[in-house]
Amino acid sequence: MENASGRHEIKHYINHADYLQLRARLPFIAAPDENAADGNGYRVRSLYFDNHEDKALREKIDGVNEREKFRLRLYNCDPSFIRLEKKGKKGGICFKESAVIPFEACSRLILGRYGALKETGDPLMLEFYTKLHFELLRPKIIVDYLREAYVFPAGNVRVTMDYDIRASLDPGAFLSRQIITVPIPETIILEVKYDAFLPELIRGMAALGSRQQTAFSKYAATRTF
To answer: Which helix (H) or strand (E) element contains residue 213?
Structure first.
């Protein structure tokens, strides 16, 4: 399991012109993410969990200072590598823990057979197993989108642009290559994540004078849409 580490996170809504401008500039100062295919980014798919009262959704909308949510995630529709992730936020700092979940365990989990998590012995999966039972977490929605990502070593900076955001209310389709989704139109999100400091070079490159910082959440946006 990867340990949680606090990170700063800045998000902006951007338009298509902003996206083209950043896409032209960023490769000159930052390296494309190693998962990108031919410089065209990669597909991200997440299955989010929440309880019957939609606790994670309500806490996000209400801006609760300390909150968490669980999700399963895979890339480029490839089920050979799946992660269980726990994302949290406290005092404006974002935290994430993750663990690789075997395909068989993931398949059983989606079918409601949670014992597969306990069998792994992984601490994060054991925590998730407990909360599935005692907090009644259940799969709620699939969020699928394209991501272009760039990394900059100083400050451990990661800049991403997410677009073609889509949603599906069929959790059972998470591992399928063919999935029916509903698009969230005209939404492009710029995210800048960093550790202790944000280098001025990146700050200046990503500065968009007409764009205001946002607390956008793909989970909340697709649930409320």
So the answer is: none
Q: Phi first, then psi: what are they for 203, rounded to 5°?
A: -60, -45
Q: If you count them, how many residues does the chain have? A: 225
Structure tokens that stand for 222 in this block: 């697709």
State if pTM tops 0.90.
yes
Tokens read off for 221: 């946006």
The Cα–Cα gap between 169 and 173 comes to: 9
Q: What is the mean pLDDT of residues 93-118?
A: 94
- Give the residue among 36, 31, 40 at the shortest CA–CA distance from 152: 31
Give 43-80 pLDDT, tens digit per residue: 999 999 999 999 999 999 998 989 999 999 999 999 99
Q: CA 80: distance to chain centroid? A: 18
| Residue that is written with structure tokens 């054991």 in the block | 126
